[in-house]
Amino acid sequence: QVHLVESGGGVVQAGGSLRLSCKASGITISSTAMGWFRQAPGEEREFVASISPSADTTYYADSQKGRFTISRDNAKNTVYLQMNNLKPEDTAVYYCGVWGDDDTWGQGTQVTVSS
Hints:
By secondary structure, this protein is mostly beta strands. It has strands spanning 3-7, 10-13, 18-25, 34-39, 46-51, 58-60, 68-73, 78-83, 92-98, 109-114.
């Protein structure tokens, strides 16, 4: 059974930074692409970023390009999301996910950006 545990969220002021982590168990993530997603109150969950199994390809939603960086450490079975220059509109619960698996989600980690 796959388990994903996100951490690293918090409350920051606009312009600040956070680094999120996602520790996976029950799966060897080196064989699969991984992604970060977020869900704001009253909104649908949306794509943030993704990374290929070997980390040679990354994709970002337009609003995150140049501010967020996704990375992975396959030896630690962990995926990261470095978020810089945070904006109030980045406030959401952030989730990591196994690419192509819409049924497995962690508890998420809350990111709150104050103006």
